[in-house]
Amino acid sequence: MRNTRVLLVLALLFFLGVPGLGLLNVLHRPLDFRDYHTVYADAQSLVQGYDPYLDRQTQIDQAAERAKGMVGPLPRPGNWLMAQYPPPSLAYFVPLSYLPWKASLATWLIISTILFGLAAFSVLNLYEANASLWPQLLLVVFVAGSIGLPRQGQPSTAAISLAVIAMCSFIKNRRIGLGACCLALAITLKPQVAILFLPYMFFMGSRLRKYALAVIAMVAVFSIPGFLLIHWNPASGNWLGEMLTNIRLAGTNGLINDPAPANVDSQSLMETDTIFYTFIRSAHVATILTEAFCGCLLLVFALLLLRTRTGFTRDRLGVATLSVLSLLPLHHRAYDIGILILIFPALDWLTRQSSVLKYISTAMTLGVIILSHYPLPHILHVSYGSVASVGLIRFLLVFRTMALFLVALSLFFLMILGLWSRRRLPGENLQITP
């Protein structure tokens, strides 16, 4: 496996180099890293005494009102977009917010890439010692193609990487304490990315159940700095209501997170409700159907886990299945596809099964790699259109491709897990890389 490790290092250098080159243009095109700019500026607003959950002008007006009688100019808030991250998440960007913009961005890109590199090597270590070259090369291609994660400075990069490192340590039953810390920090940084991996720990044996309780405790401890900062900031007394309002507004009226077909940006969303919104005009009904559908899938998943004993094969399949299921019910954009790096150890196992499963799993994996980095509208060179103008079927196949594909991928892994639980597929093979 040494040759593959060399290729993986080269892929990681590519992963770092592409966004690194973008630092040269950051002064002229600062929004190239807009996702990091948001948390950077919101953290600045928080420590300067502004309310990061309000728009810029309202922050200025409120600060001026509070500062009547004070001598000297007021610091101006830096945020250009109202915060949607909770205080525990923003608190971990406060140290970086004291750095100049370029230095802060460069530091964050280096941290993110190191974490993603550790996550990639952790996944590779879940391959069996005699793993074939093909699934290893697919992992390398996936890593090399994941340049979109650091290109925007997305906080998801760190949360995904920490969650992957945690689950790999749990599966291998090594450094579990470190894995628990990583998972707790991932949940603190971006809850929707990692939260579903916490209940899975209760299905991984009695030892992991105890660590699951420790993760819950650590999340509470890791959240203390953020809640203290928000408590000491008198401008943010109504932060919870304001944050929930910001999240709700961003998902309505054609704004960036609106899953309705009328929103052009909805084609980059991956949650299942983008599919139901295509058929149903009522947002309330579409949300209920999404929750019911995803709830059924998660229930089937839990029942399959209860039918099997924990083990290396079961947990590789289980974590792969959950990584896909975690993208369906909650809000996710294309950059969160990085969590699917957890399907590759299962691919290593599937390529050893029947030729049909081998080819299907390989095709599914290639689909993940291609569609996550090259959306179908870009491949076909077609512009976004309404359901009425392009037709329902074509709209779903072209502009809801990733959401449909993720549903198909989740059903595929549930089927595999079901076949394995009924002993229709070979059992444990505990020969893994040291």
TrEMBL record:
It is a multi-pass membrane protein. The keyword RNA-binding does not apply. Keywords: Cell membrane, Membrane, Transferase, Transmembrane, Transmembrane helix. Its main location: membrane. It comes from the Bacteria. One of its GO terms (molecular function) is hexosyltransferase activity. It is found in: Cell membrane. GO terms for cellular component: plasma membrane. Belongs to the glycosyltransferase 87 family. This is DUF2029 domain-containing protein.
